[in-house]
Amino acid sequence: MLFSPALFEVGFATLAALPYAKHGFDLLMARKRTLSRPNESYSGTLTILLPIWNEANILTQKLNNLKETCQTFKPHIVIIDSASTDQSVSIAEQWGDKGAFATYELLKMEQRQGKTAAVKKALEHINRSIKTDLVLMTDADAMFESNTVPKLLQWFAEPSIGCVGATPKRIGQRVEEEGHRNLFSMVRNLESKIDSTLFLEGSCMVWRTEALDVHALNETSNADDAQIATNVRINGLRVIQDDDAHFIDHAPLERKEHSRQKVRRAQGLQRHLLRQRQHWFNRRHGKFATILRQEAALHLLTPLLLVCTMVAMLARWALIGFAEIDFSNATLTTLHVGLFAVEACVLLSWFTVRFGIKIPVLNQLGSIVDSNIHLVRSLWNSSRGTSLHMWDQHLDGRN
After folding, report:
1. How far, in Å, CA of 72 to CA of 50, rounded?
2. Which H, E and C letters describe the chain, residue by residue?
3. DSSP bridge pairs for 282
4. What is the pLDDT of residues 180-201, one digit of tens each?
5. Comparing 60-64, 83-87, 173-177, 235-239, which segment has the lowest mean pLDDT?
6. How far is residue 203's CA from residue 211's CA, in Å, rounded to a whole number?
7. pLDDT value, residue 396
8. What's the pLDDT band for 262 if we cut at 50, 70, 90?
9. pLDDT in tens, 125-167
10. 230 with 324: CB under 8 angstroms?
11. Structure pTM?
12. How far apart are CA 341 and CA 355, in angstroms?
């Protein structure tokens, strides 16, 4: 009788690990591939899209940063405000260096509808009024290095490239966030070498205007950056992350704020991947279809299988508590002792990131466990009909 829950636990855990093993193997095979930035300067037109909501504390700093880092290109800039309740609008209107840009426009929404709705409205305006070659989207709390934009724009000398994202340098991030982001950045870079990555950072990403179908953006969901990246690739052009072009932002320092941000992000990605299910096995997309369905398995299937693993584990513990173990049965004893050891290792790894204890290898495993906890929480929110596409930003780095 004690065999049954143990076998279920092993079976569910094995199934949960398979997407990691398959995607990990594919990424390992891509390590030796090269992805070289063209050594050519960009000569087309560029428009910066800056969505804001209650960014009064950092908006001046952001505009000054854009002026300093983009002066070579003299881009257009479109700021769209999602009905801020602070001084963001007046700061944007009164900023004194508007001449640093080819044109300077401020769009105002009468009510807050979420970032994706604001981005969609701004892009429709850009398509009608500016007719730009490229759009660079950035967040108010993301600061560029001096060479960030030039490096990103160089990629567009290659006709097959449709969208490029920068790599984050996060200040003050927690141990679990550091492990997660390092792993996530590595995965994005390797997916870029295989074909394309569908996840970029909306804090700094550039795409060809003609490659994006603006009407495909879902206004009632977040993950606008993933929506844009995926749409560009589905329309035939590659999407990559540049591991040598960086932006700087602040990660939440408090565990509660960190978790809230992760759950919100997780829900957006899960809902986005589910909406793309018609492309999971579309041969027209080549290797990108493989990446798409593997990411879907990691974000949707694996968390559910881990919940089943947890239920089987608790059932096994309950049976052990009410039954006597026959230690003369070597197979049964070895199975349970082995499972105890694995469970203890997983729990210890999660504690290391939960409480900020830096231990190599355990931190990597703990980051994966912690990420799946947030994926389960986001699935639970979605099952209850709770949408997180509108949120209050964390205040770390905004004062």
Report:
1. 19
2. CCHHHHHHHHHHHHHHHHHHHHHHHHHHHCCCCCCCCCCCCCCCCEEEEEEECCCCCCHHHHHHHHHHHCCCCCCEEEEEECCCCCCHHHHHHHCCCHHHCCCEEEEECCCCCCHHHHHHHHHHHHHHHCCCCEEEEECCCCEECCCHHHHHHHHHHCCCEEEEEEEEEEECCCHHHHHHHHHHHHHHHHHHHHCCCCCCCCCEEEEEHHHCCHHHCCCCCCCHHHHHHHHHHHCCCEEEEEEEEEEEEECCCCHHHHHHHHHHHHHHHHHHHHHCHHHCCCHHHCHHHHHHHHHHHHHHHHHHHHHHHHHHHHHHHHHHHHCCCCCCCHHHHHHHHHHHHHHHHHHHHHHHHHCCCCCCCHHHHHHHHHHHHHHHHHHHHHHCCCCCCCCCCCCCCCC
3. none
4. 677 888 999 999 999 999 999 9
5. 173-177
6. 19
7. 56
8. confident
9. 999 999 899 999 999 999 999 999 999 999 999 999 999 999 9
10. no
11. 0.91
12. 21
Tokens 């999660």 -> residue? 350
The amino acid present at 247, given as its one-letter code, is F
- Please say whether the beta carbons of 250 and 172 come within 8 A: yes
Cα angle value 207/227/56 (rounded, 5°): 75
Tokens of residue 326, six digits: 């026959």
- 391/168 Cα distance (integer angstroms): 21
Q: Does position 62 have pLDDT exceeding 90, yes or no?
A: yes
What the chain holds in terms of domains, given with CATH numbers, is: 43-254 (3.90.550.10)
Q: Are 48 and 78 in contact (CB under 8 A)?
A: yes
Report the alpha-carbon distance of residue 102 to residue 27 in Å, rounded. 42
Mean pLDDT in residue range 347-353: 90
